[in-house]
Amino acid sequence: MILRDGREVLLGARSPAHVFMPDLYVFPGGGVDAEDEVLECPVQLRPDVESKLRHSVSPLRARALALAAIRETFEETGLVVGDPSTHRMRAESDSWRRFAATGFVPALDRLDYVARAITPAGQPRRFDARFFLVDARHVHGRLAGNGELHDLHWVALEAADRLAMGPITRLVLEVLRHRLAESPGDELADRIPLYNELIGRELIEHH
Fold it and tell me: Of 68, 71, 96, 143, which sits most exposed with the smallest number of CB within 10 A?
């Protein structure tokens, strides 16, 4: 999730050709590729973020999940979650070679970890997704999708509910709004009815 000015997030609609969640608005993202597990990167996750991820994965997997989020964002939006650096990453895949050519390195230390969600058992198609958050101040480049998501645009948090999206996407947006509210100490269960419906069934980890 990319947060701009504390009030907008970037969303795009999945292609109608997708069998899973067609036409629904989602955050940029996708699965871990083999190179995400081994890519050399001079920037590490913040210790607090790695600690949260290690509730369910190894340090190596935690790093790979974060790198996958940055790579998929780059592929689907053209935006670089990175810091300028003279370090030149040795990359094998086309995506990471193109990322390295921008002159940036993945800004793993700019990511916050928000939540993990798993599709309930019994569904024919399932996901196991982690949601990261980054401030748009640490994002560079021009918005240019690769076609996997269409209608990519910045959406005001208070207007996002007008878009078609899956329950978990809607809940993560609610959790984000809660984090940004003036009274973040209020219980999610009291503020967000959807939380009571999905906690433990689909939303299994949040911070």
Answer: 143
